[in-house]
Design goal:
The structure holds two protein chains of two kinds. Chain A is mostly helical. Chain A is about 70% helix and about 10% strand. Chain A is elongated, with a radius of gyration of 22 Å. Chain A has two domains: about 110 residues, no CATH class; about 130 residues, no CATH class. The longest helix of chain B is centred in the C-terminal third of the chain and has 36 residues. Chain B contains seven helices and no strands. Classes of the chains: A mainly alpha, B mainly alpha. Chains A and B meet through helix 3, helix 5, helix 8, helix 9 and helix 10 of A and helix 1, helix 4, helix 5 and helix 6 of B.
């Protein structure tokens, strides 16, 4: 193959990998590490600038003047730890077994097309998590079932609005509003011992845990800008959740 | 005594379930599920045991999360997955949801409802207590999960073992 064409192909592949990692919820340090490993397997050097919405990358060879720089826009974020894990494994095997460009490309394609868990499984698992939260904060079994039901409906709304392509903060707001309205009903009708816990825990499925933890690790790695961006998205999410909760509490005059 | 232990175990089990539920939301690989449950269970057990011995919730959370941060390195070698995958889900049940709720509730009462001066002072107290407890718990989660990695790492978990 023509060496400049190979270079372009390499940049595109590495950009694809890094954008996949960013979208799946890896922190900046991990993206850099994976890129370095793949580049090492392909005997290239790379430098890159990673931001929240796009990645700029230059790939070059040590002893030639040949280099290639490209920019890739990052698609909307969807946390997926399976992809992070699979890419991490692939990067180690690529270095050890000296994978070729095509081998890496086919492997990434396979990783990209992995299926997520079915929507119903996610719904039930997250609702159980909501019930678990309720137990942690001293709720009894009635409160837990309220938390289960409101989390279920809230997450269902969140998933359904995804198809319509609404703004993500608007979706979070609606999910939080509906979940907390449902849970507020249990306070109005005085179900269980601690109906407040059901309300407090019914909205926790929206909490931006990954964004906030990644933001902190990015700060510690001196990736300040990315850390700030993640922190801001986390903060926006929290505000959207709080607004939904706030309106529900105001509607039912809870105090 | 037995009842206390049973209660602790129940709460810890629900922490594990909550961790697993969030893991599934984050689409963790199937092989990691038992690890996530066990880590969530252990972290919950540590946190609530410490709180049972009257240790403040902030410190208890920090110790539990710090434990996850340390244990995740040997575990990463054993199950061959990067630490992020099974470290973040078990910390999610530690999130101070109830304090956040109390803060929002007090803020709302303070702004829209309460006119009585004495009660307003009480509400301010509630806003600060709950708000800062929530804030410190969040910081202890973030610091607890990232400190062990920073203290020990060169570049990645896998390299640590090669150097030893």
């Amino acid at each position: 193959m023509d060496s400049s064409k190979e270079l372009i192909k390499t940049v595109d592949l590495l950009l694809e990998i890094s954008s996949l990692l960013m979208v799946s919820g890896a922190n900046t340090n991990r993206v850099n590490l994976s890129i370095d490993r793949f580049a090492k397997a392909l005997h290239f050097n790379t430098s890159c600038f990673i931001s929240h919405k796009s990645i700029v990358m230059t790939v070059y060879e040590e002893n030639t003047s040949l280099s290639c720089t490209r920019v890739k826009n990052i698609p909307p974020y969807a946390i997926n730890f399976s992809i992070i894990s699979a890419i991490s494994k692939a990067s180690w095997t690529a270095v050890e077994d000296h994978w070729t460009l095509n081998k890496i490309a086919t492997e990434i394609e396979i990783i990209k097309n992995q299926k997520r868990y079915p929507k119903l499984v996610i719904l039930i698992a997250v609702s159980l998590a909501g019930a678990g939260f309720c137990n942690i904060f001293n709720g009894d079994y009635i409160n837990m079932s309220v938390a289960f039901a409101s989390t279920f409906i809230g997450l269902l709304i969140f998933q359904l609005t995804h198809r319509e392509g609404y703004n993500v903060y608007l979706r979070i707001f609606f999910a939080s509003l509906i979940a907390s309205v449902l849970a507020s009903l249990s306070i109005v009708f005085k179900l269980g011992d601690n109906p407040e816990t059901a309300l407090a825990t019914s909205i926790l499925f929206l909490v931006p845990g990954v964004a906030l933890i990644n933001s902190f690790t990015d700060f510690l790695d001196n990736n300040i800008i990315n850390g700030l961006v993640r922190f801001t998205t986390g903060l926006m999410t929290v505000l959207a959740i709080a607004l939904g909760l706030f309106i529900a509490m105001f509607l039912f005059q809870l105090h | 005594m037995l009842i206390t232990i049973l209660n602790l175990l129940e709460v810890a089990a629900w922490s594990g379930i909550a961790a697993l539920g969030f893991g599934i939301l984050f689409n963790i690989p199937k092989g990691v599920m038992p690890t996530v449950f066990i880590l969530g269970f252990t972290a919950g057990f540590i946190k609530f045991m410490l709180m049972h011995f009257d240790i403040h919730i902030v410190l208890a959370t920090f110790i539990a999360v710090f434990f996850i941060g340390i244990i995740c390195m040997p575990v990463a070698h054993k199950i061959h997955h990067p630490p992020v995958v099974f470290c973040i889900p078990p910390t999610i049940p530690m999130i101070p949801g109830y304090f956040a709720y109390e803060t929002v509730l007090s803020v709302m009462n303070f702004i829209f409802m309460e006119a009585n001066q004495a009660k307003r002072v009480e509400l301010m107290d509630a806003i600060f207590t709950n708000g800062f407890t929530m804030f410190f718990i969040l910081i202890s989660i973030a610091a607890g999960i990232s400190l062990p990695m920073l203290l020990l790492r060169r570049t990645s978990v896998k390299k640590l073992k090669e150097e030893n």
